[in-house]
Amino acid sequence: MPKIRSIFGYMWAGAAIIVVFATFLASDFFSRALVASSGVKISPWYSGGEVVQTLDHGSYRTHVHRPVFDALIGEKDEGFIQVNWEPLAGLPSVIEESFDYSGDGKADFSVRVDTKTGEASLAPINPMVVSIRKTAKLDDGWMIRVQLSRTIKKDR
Amino acid sequence: MKTDTHQVPQGEGKGRTIVLTLVMAVITVVMFSQGKMPQDPKEMIALVLTLLFANTLFFLLLYTGRTDRYRAIYFSTFAVSLIISFVSHMFEARGSMSLSETKILQCEVPFCHLVIPMTLVPMAITKTIIFPGSLLGKYASIASMFVIWIGATLALGRGFCSWVCFYGGLDDGFSRVLKRPVIRNINPKWIYLPFAVLLLVALTAAVYLSPVYCSWLCPFKAVTEFQAVTSTKILIQTIIFVGLFIGLVIVLPILTKKRTQCAFLCPFGAMQSLTNKINVFDVRIDKEKCVKCKRCIQVCPTLSMSEESLEQGCARITCMKCGKCIDNCPKGAISYHIKGTDIPGKRNAYRLLFLFAAFLFLAIFSSHIIQDGIVRVLKLITTGSMIS
User: Are residues A19 and A71 in the same domain?
Assistant: First the structure.
């Protein structure tokens, strides 16, 4: 028995050297396989969530992401919705657009973004729409994150 | 009275060392160059210097039988090269070390292994990575770092912290500045702090779906990248990480001669202590040879040797396999060991197998970073600037 354990030990140690080579020689393969087999994605709190609607305005496009309320288990009360406009070269100096993220046929909010100064304003229509959480110029466009809340306060 | 300190550690014979170094030389030439010789003279010089550096150290590791001394030189060079290379890249790409909000929103933040402990629970439950990086392809992608981590864990276990981590060489290097420690008495219970930090950051990251350690504690942001100070919150975070860097990575390692960041804070290290179980190499003490001089307890940079260790014949789970205790044991009672084999057994064979795996990992993983570091320094000398 000790001899078998010893043989397994040496085999395992030899395998460790093979693992080192495999780690580097097949790094790209393992990376792709890891992503494909696990099905992981970047958290929507960073990526903005999946794009659910793209509106073509000719010189530029609007990408509307899904509302993000994701929690570790279930959903949070507070979330956001992200909208991107691209490409940068095709954007008008002022973007004004209304959005219906709830899918009830009525606009939930409208935003106005000045692409020269970065000033943005929000007109909430749905009481779940709270405020502008973030506006940013990206490498090839602009984005806005609008804060959403499922707890509707009386004073709102 | 003549002591027998000179008899350990024992290196390989000259012929055997030369043959093994030639094997390593062939492997490193292929792996470092990736089968093609660089056209740019600076890159060629960097490749040759890196190859000479790696193979000289490997020769010395084998010939002298001393592990820690030559490992530390390589390991610290890796850390310094990373700073030179990474910061130069950041200045080329962004014009500064600060991370803009745009890069975060576009998910273009380079990923590092220290984030891994925080990503595991959310990844298991939500199938998402709570980090604004890219999964594949770009510089330091998330998947590539996971592959490195899995490979290093299988091959080296917690040896990751002394042979692979591109930050560890900093406090390792600073811990060697003074000949004797100024602060000697450190409560060994501090070694449990990283486990508490690990639990705390893993839970808070899961609850907030945010890499809390990166935002609030990681000292290495001071030498890589950090968020631009645009709010009071970010200012507080900046003060914390700069303070931790100065305290845990520079000042305390110098004063204590211990790797204080790695031993007393790092949650990734704590996780590696747990995953180390699946690794075949460990450090064992031959109780028959041990004279309980406690030299190993004094020199261990992570407080992983204790009187209980000497009684039990093995290092604590926090052992990073740096080899310092092995080099310093006057009786040669401590050695690398392969699980399942005899103690002391064939200690040179155990060491050789461990060194091949560990040194190869360090050499291959660091090669492009060290080469880029050398190219940047050559650029600085010839053009006055490290960036293109």
Answer: no
User: Are A16 and A54 in the same domain?
Assistant: no
Q: Closest to B338 (Cβ–Cβ): which among A13, A40, A134?
A: A13
DSSP B109: P
ipTM: 0.91
* A22 alpha carbon, distance to own chain's centre: 33
Q: Could you tell me the end-to-end alpha-carbon distance of chain B, in angstroms, rounded to an integer?
A: 61
Same domain, A34 and A48: no
Domain ranges of chain B: 1-94+347-388, 97-279, 280-345
Same domain, A71 and A138: yes
pLDDT in tens, A110-139: 999 999 999 999 999 999 999 999 999 999
Specify whether A94 is located in the same domain as A135.
yes
Chain B residues near residue A30 by CB distance under 8 angstroms: 143, 147, 150
B209 in contact with A, Cβ within 8 Å: yes
CB pairs under 8 A between A and B: 148
Q: pLDDT tens for residues A27-44?
A: 999 999 999 999 999 999
Structure tokens, B338: 């392969």
Touching check for B129 and chain A: CB below 8 Å?
yes
Is residue A156 one of the residues assigned to a domain?
no
C-alpha to C-alpha distance for B365 and B32, rounded to whole angstroms = 9
**Residues B234 and B228: beta-carbon distance below 8 Å:** yes
End-to-end, the C-alpha distance of chain A in Å comes to 75
Domain hosting A142: range is: 44-149
CB contact under 8 A, B106 and A138: yes
The nearest alpha carbon in chain A to B133 belongs to: A42
Tell me whether B360 touches chain A (CB under 8 Å).
Answer: yes
- The whole-angstrom separation of Cα B298 and Cα B316 is 14
Q: What is the pLDDT of residue B30?
A: 95
> Nearest CA of chain A to the CA of B125: how many Å?
7
If asked whether residues A76 and A121 sit together in one domain, one would say: yes
CATH topology of domain B280-345: Alpha-Beta Plaits (3.30.70)
Provide the pLDDT confidence category of residue B227 given band limits of 50, 70 and 90: confident
